[in-house]
Amino acid sequence: MPLADQLVREIDDRRDDLIALTQDLLRIPTLNPPGENYRDICEYLARRLGSSGFQVELIRAHGTPGDCEKYPRWNVVARREGTGPGECIHFNSHIDVVDVGLGWTKDPFGGEHSDGKIYGRGACDMKGGLASSIIAAEAFLAVCPDFSGAIEISGTADEESGGFGGVAYLAQKGYFNPERVHHVIIPEPLNKDRICLGHRGVWWAELETFGEIAHGSMPFLGDCAIRHMGAVMDEMERTLFPALAKKRTEMPVVPEGARQSTLNINSIHGGQSEGEADFTGLPSPCVPDSCRMVIDRRFLLEENIEEVQSEFMDILKTVQGQRESFRYDLRELHRVLPTMTERDAPVVRTVARAIAATMGRPAEYVVSPGTYDQKHIDRIGKLKNCIAYGPGILDLAHKPDEYVGVDDMLDSAKVMGLSLIDLLTRARDLDLPAEASK
Questions:
Q1: Domain around 34
Q2: CB 200 within 8 A of CB 369
Q3: Which residues span the membrane (predicted)?
Q4: Is the pTM of this model over 0.70?
Q5: Residues 67-104: tens digit of each pLDDT
Q6: Residue 80 maps to a domain
Q7: What is the pLDDT of residues 44-62, one digit of tens each?
Q8: Is there a domain that residue 206 lies in?
């Protein structure tokens, strides 16, 4: 029987194990913020992967944003060496999940299995992908114990809040050095027949406008910072938003609306702070002397960061020319440059072949509208041969009643396993499983 067919059969036989593994991961509530139970899930993964012959490290990202004794930023990296020299393929998944939110009809940390779906916060984003990569690796080891090279699996912290306590920290420590790791697959939920080549860029900034406090009954004696911010927003509506809508990219960004430049007003806070939840009194009458706005600008491969910043500065200069008392402070919060792996990169070609073999149709190539941990592997690790590929429907991420399909996880595990065969054995001319050749 061809090696590829053996692998497919081995993964199908592990269906119950895949379901149980996914449920176990979902039942560890790794909420971020604040960063709960990171150590617990890393220890669980260490036990699981250690029993499969992986050498395991638990790594705390000391001093990174959010790291403290109450909520330490733990990561796990497991490596299984082959019987001979060769390349290393690394599967990286983040262990953190976002807040539950309202509207659930399922237990968000129950791992309910119903009608071929497993429900829970993080099911598709991305504990289902993590489970699929583990099953793929274990099945590969069962059918091909004498492989060349190495397999790595990591569970990393804080992707949902920038990844600085996870992949960024590991990249700084050399874990994604191209001399150590050669291929990276991040099992984010981009749909099982898609290869995600990269993502748009992001520039976050906080603008604060200033005024002068005065009695609310005599606003003419003060200077309203919120009105200044309103003037900024009016100018943005009048000139910046229409200009961004005209900028289009050749990147295959999904969904279609994200193929242009975008700007989101993430938050606005002006005047007095809101009272505690149990405060029932009224606010005092004051002219606000400060207003803060956080903007989230997503930009394209065809743009540069200096252009992005200057466009917003032009807005402020225009308002300053119109309002005599206009004063402001602009602070950059975060920047990530766009990244896109070439379609002829080795990991892209390999996964595309495995998708065709498993699904019986060509892979679709996409780019993510938002960033994920590829940014750190590219920018800090200097490793370009990286993609996102995994099970799950992107639109379900961060939603109530989030789920991942069991069949989708099995298919993705087969794609990952076939990729291991292609990269770590001599079977470079991949034998198509019987169902894919129809």
A1: 3-199+338-437
A2: yes
A3: none
A4: yes
A5: 999 999 999 999 999 999 999 999 999 999 999 999 99
A6: yes
A7: 999 999 999 999 999 999 9
A8: no
